[in-house]
UniProtKB/TrEMBL annotation:
Family classification: Belongs to the thiolase-like superfamily. Beta-ketoacyl-ACP synthases family.
UniProt protein name: 3-oxoacyl-[acyl-carrier-protein] synthase 2
Pathway(s) per entry: Lipid metabolism; fatty acid biosynthesis
Role played: Involved in the type II fatty acid elongation cycle. Catalyzes the elongation of a wide range of acyl-ACP by the addition of two carbons from malonyl-ACP to an acyl acceptor. Can efficiently catalyze the conversion of palmitoleoyl-ACP (cis-hexadec-9-enoyl-ACP) to cis-vaccenoyl-ACP (cis-octadec-11-enoyl-ACP), an essential step in the thermal regulation of fatty acid composition.
Gene Ontology biological-process annotations: fatty acid biosynthetic process
Species this chain originates from: Maridesulfovibrio ferrireducens
Residue ranges occupied by any Ketosynthase family 3 (KS3) domain in the UniProt entry: 1-409
Lineage: Bacteria, Pseudomonadati, Thermodesulfobacteriota, Desulfovibrionia, Desulfovibrionales
Chain ranges passing through the membrane: none
UniProt enzyme class: transferase
EC number: 2.3.1.179
PROSITE patterns from the UniProt entry: KS3_1, KS3_2
Amino acid sequence: MNRVVVTGLSAITPIGNDIDTSWNNLLAGKSGIAKITSFDASEFTSQIAGEVKNFDPKDFIPHKQAKRMERFTQLAVAAGEQLLENAKFKPEGDDCKRTGVVIGVGLGGLQTIETQHAKLQKSGPRKITPFFIPIIIGNMAAGQVSIFSGARGPNMCMCTACASGTHSIGAAYTDIMLGRADVMICGGTESTITPLGFAGFTSMKALSTRNDDPEKASRPFDKGRDGFIMGEGCGLLLLESLDHARARGAEILGEVVGFGASSDAYHMTAPPEDGRGMALAMEAAIREAGIDPSQVDHINAHGTSTYLNDFCETKAIKKVFGDHARNIAITANKSQTGHLLGGAGGMEAVFSIKTLATGIIPGTANQLEADPDCDLDYGKDGMRKKQANYVLSNSFGFGGTNACMLFKKFED
């Protein structure tokens, strides 16, 4: 089996349009959540979101091609270019056929569906663009990143709701470990801050309605949490076999040592209150790494700021780690970015690797009132300088799908 390492990172998020800005703003406790600007949300019960600001696809993509992409794909192509620059890698020669792409998407092209449906209703089928289907399908993010990068290896899209990004990293890790590829571009992307997307989530009463205080609306593990905040963005990693990374003299930022996946087999949208499915995925990642649970120093939590998710994730962590659960530094990035849905696992994996590489653990914002049911160390005092050796990154999605990645500080 090949050892798998991380040699590149990129992020376009509500708190920054590149990895360095996003990371620095995360550590500074800056929020990317504000009133929605992409459409008039005045009639919605929730009117706030974590939007990517000042993103111009033409900075990365020729105008004609950008017009034929949904925003989630534009974000992925831009992040893909940033990733290869960060990793100092470009697929060439034999590397092309041994480099693949796996990018997760939760919902896909809602904006185009909405605008084209309106055209259909108003003017009939002849007014629908011939690019409609290629624009909206979820795998087009991975497809376009492959086209722009020249990667001709495995090319896939994981569509597992809010676990899509993490499942994609797990699939990429597995392909390299088994020798199917030497290099993989992987992570998640999403952009569904649209009237239809918001209408769907508000009708479920899933979103926070704290519209008068956007920056403090996302409150993972806090007693006053009232729902999640929708976000958008993309987070990508470059994974390589250790041999390939060493051969090209790459900087190694961390190692992938475990992947776990499970199903709740319980409910369409709600986890079981004992968190058993979440626990199964965490246990599987730890078991694959061959370590004791007590060796995990840090968890990048799913931490959505919904009552049931945060309660169940806390229960699951206690089940897996026992008394050690109280020694683990836990972070919920969504407190500052909102929930990137299919892009969340990619972004949070990127931040997990930054934690390993820098020896800094980000905090969790907006813990204003302690919840006796969520009584672990969630980093309420902000970022801390502490070297983590093992970081677990959690993602849980509708349909009862769970995914966890276990990363390790790299050692020769």
